[in-house]
Amino acid sequence: MIRPLVKTKRDGTLYVRPPEIETEIHAVLNQDLNLLVRRAEIRDWKASDFLSSECLVHLIREALRRGHEEMYDKLLPLLLERCAITLRSKVDWKIATAPQLCQEIISDFSELFAADNSPHGLNELDFFEVRFNLAFQTFRITRVRLEIDRLNREKALPDPEFPDDPIDEEVLRCLSDLYLATTDPEQVIFRKQVYAAIMALPPDERRALILCYYLGFKEESEDPNERTAATICGVTGRTIRNRLVRAIAKVSRLKEAQ
Known about the structure:
Elements: H1 19-28, H2 33-40, H3 53-66, H4 69-90, H5 98-116, H6 126-130, H7 132-156, H8 169-177, H9 185-199, H10 203-214, H11 229-233, H12 237-257
Helix pairs in contact: 1-3, 2-4, 3-4, 4-5, 9-12, 10-12
């Protein structure tokens, strides 16, 4: 049985896969991985063996849930390659940071899968199983606009290397609880503001914040084999801490603006 979607729309109704996507998923569930890879490599959506991106998202999510690392490792890069092709044609290359921005969008999208499989996952990928192109378009446009806003602010008021802004404790709690359920309207609004502020951070600071406060990785470890924020980013623990200091200080300014 195909795992049902659980994310709701603004009107409270559940997202539902189109019948043709449900049929496609049923048809591929028992197919050989090598065949799935060959089908996922096809770029022509009119081809009879073309595997839809909606179906690919489902297969990758299921691979993560079931611990099927080989399937995850082979299918995710093919989906990300499709996304990269889209970005190359859709992102305005007049933006100063366009190449880095495209890489960050791909990185952020891939992290949705890790978040989806975490205890506090928000099922953000449900929409991608329903209408992938629209979902990725929204994902892309949001990040492009945030990057343009960030560049404009950076020109107007450059940030110091090590800001002295006080770190607000409420912001810190919100970072840790960002994806937990809440019915408090004020908390909903505040969390959205914090999320927007995080996405507007420079890529290195945003990645450090997400790795440490959302995905729960340590900044560094004495165990050389332990995966930490420092090893993932390929930097020292001190660098991660410096990035966190700058990031949290910037996000904490939310309170000053209220």
